[in-house]
Amino acid sequence: MKRLMITIGIAAMALAGCSQSKDAAKPAIDLANFDESTAPGEDFYQYACGGWMEANPLTAEYARYGIFDQLDKENQEKLKTLIEDLNSTPQAEGSVGAKIQTMYAMGLDMDKRNADAAAPVKEQMEAIKAVSNREELSAMIGKMHVECASPFFGFYIGADEKNSTMNILQFYQGGISMGERDYYLMDDENSAKLRAAYRNYANTLFTLAGYSKEEAEKAAETVISLETRIAEVSVDRNTLRDVHKNYNKMSVKDFVKKFDFIDWEIFFKETGIKNSTELNASQLTFFEGLTRLLKKTPLEDQKTYLTFNLLSSASNYLSEDFVNANFEYYGKALQGKEELQPLWKRSLSVVNRSLAEAFGQMYVEKYFPASSKEKMLEMVENLRTALGERIDALEWMSQETKAKAHEKLGTFIVKVGYPDKWKDYTALEIKNDSYWANICRANVFGHNEMMKDEGKPVDRTQWGMSPQTVNAYYNPTTNEICFPAAILNPPFFNPEADDAVNYGGIGVVIGHEMTHGFDDQGRNYDKDGNISAWWTEEDERKFNEKAQVLVDQYDKIVVLDTLHADGRYTLGENIADQGGLLIAHQAYMNTLKGKPEPADIDGFTHNQRFYLGYANLWAQNVRPQEIIRRTKTDVHSLGKWRVNGALRNIDDFYTAFGIKEGDAMYMAPEERINIW
User: Fold this and answer.
1) Which residues face 166 on adjacent strands?
2) DSSP structural state of residue 283
3) Which terminal residue of the chain, N or C, has fewer Cβ atoms less than 10 Å from its own Cβ?
4) How far apart are CA 584 and CA 382, in angstroms?
5) What phi, psi does 145 have (nearest 5°)?
């Protein structure tokens, strides 16, 4: 991952509002979502979500479909409407509106894309073919990093994690495209099937690009062999979460001398790196291994690998044959999808990435009311107060560390809705030549925008997500929590809903992101966003002991057949889910001080509605292939375990639903763990 930015994942939640209205168009709790044949104490997730899952079976285009995806579908329709509005009015040449129009239209024009076939990548292929020495290879790798792919490794400009006010050049491991390092190395049946599908994918791309049968097979084998060796020197997914192991600051001079598998001077020139004297080599062992590997890899093999990277990156933007080849692996084999999304959705997603903030500005103007931001900011402060109270009440933490924790909590930057300043897209050129050419120009634009930050102070007004993104995040280097406008929409943002449901919704999201500042990764950063040892050794020991209990709990979960969850890999998110629930519930109870206890609604107490509000939002159906993929690649637990796994540790949940010894949801009090 380029930047340590910790998200809510696949959730979108509700916003606090006034008392529930009987005339609400969208009920706060939809009784049809329940499976009343299942008792809450047997399987709370099935009880709260089983009705919804039965009524919403997976359709062919989805590997996972949940409540979140419903919101995303509605959001897509809104964005489509924005484009249709643009199309109804003449747009000035070179304007943002015209650029959005053209990019979208080029994606939809499959007749032209089919007629062009592989032509849009031929010039780039020939340029790779013409490479004859190490210097030219270095230049080509740099050029590709700018406009179309990230061969062998990745890099970006981002905050120095021990000097968070300044940006620094950052290099990190990459170079493999199957989706996960283990797929290359493990001998299980699923990994073997994926390797076979991936080999076929590479073979197909080379064939479509004009290679003979024999040439394509040989080229595919070369790619698989080289990527496997790259996987062998790559660090595992849990090591990637260790902030200390991934901070390796050194001089640029030392880096280029030690890892001399390419001519870095030429690479830097191609990518526009010119103001850096220091950098962070995130995974040192990877670059050590990659150096050994590439120094003995023939030039022709590296060229074949670069060609595959080009074709794979371009595949979704070329003819249907290329698109289908990409889908056969990444859609069908890897995720279990049965058919492609409609063309308009795919074209829309490209516009949404390439002109994200321009699109976002239009979205906010039409769909985001100021009242939502006001309510959200009020709720954030309620959650901040509640977390402060919980910190004060921690029996395992010393006063010294508590004081530092309060400092960090008090300095959280809060971003809601949309940025205060919008990105300027004047320099982005969109033409009518080819879809792929426009993708490359958009990539160059994005790269150039990033390079403006090289050697500069961190701009803390920048957003890590566009306003139309249905998600939320915590960024440790800026100590910020961010909630884009799109997450504050029906069915999750229901101003007619009662506070209990809303605190179980967006309240938990707020608490979740706040808790990320104190999870196993976030706790390593101080109030200023620097990796810093602000904990006492004893407090750190106690935290790790408690965290290990949570790791062990999730390690025992069987997600599919014999496949277990990875409690270490998902630890940060599991801590945040639990913390979010505890903080949000306390904030909700604080709002009731001095007031009569709320009346039951639909036969549920207000406390029950809090937990139902949380559980309902994780309803989802998931294909077996996607369960396997997410277990290996997603730091978030599956929806079922974000509900059942978290709630089993919360005493108040037991009280709310009468969970008793002997129930499947029951866990002995001494086995329960609350960290925050």
Assistant:
1) 457
2) -
3) N
4) 9
5) -60, -30
φ and ψ at 30, to 5 degrees? -90, 115
Beta bridge partners of 604: 601
Cα–Cα distance, 463 to 421 (Å, whole number): 10
Q: How far is the C-alpha of 592 from the C-alpha of 64, rounded, in Å? A: 37
In which residue are the tokens 């919008």 written? 422
What are the distances in angstroms from CA 158 to CA 60, 196, 478? 39, 37, 11
Q: What is the CATH number of domain 151-317?
A: 1.10.1380.10
Domain spans, the chain: 1-15+371-421+461-676, 151-317
Residue 671: helix, strand or coil by DSSP? helix
- Is-contact 580 636, C-beta < 8 A? no
Q: List C-alpha distances in Å: 549 to 17, 670, 671, 672.
A: 36, 11, 8, 9
CATH of domain 1-15+371-421+461-676: 3.40.390.10
Instruction: Retrieve residue 85's tokens.
Output: 């509005």
For residue 91, what are its two tokens? 């747009």
What phi, psi does 336 have (nearest 5°)?
Answer: 85, 10
Tokens 């120094």 belong to residue: 295
pLDDT tens-digit series, residues 331-390: 999 999 999 999 999 999 999 999 999 999 999 999 998 888 888 899 999 999 999 999
Q: Which of 240, 351, 346, 352 lies closest to 634 in space, CA to CA? A: 240
By CB neighbour count within 10 A (0-12 exposed, 13-18 middle, 19+ buried), where does 454 fall?
middle
* pLDDT tens, position by position, 127-153: 999 999 999 999 999 999 999 999 999
Picking from 137, 59, 128, 470, the residue whose alpha carbon sits closest to that of residue 313 is 128
Strand order through the sheet with 163-173? 153-160, 163-173, 278-281, 249-251
Beta bridge partners of 249: 280
Q: Angle at CA 220, nearest 5°, toward 218 and 223?
A: 110
Spatial separation of the C-alpha atoms in residues 300 and 222, rounded to whole Å:
10
Nearest to 428 by CA among 3, 95, 92: 95
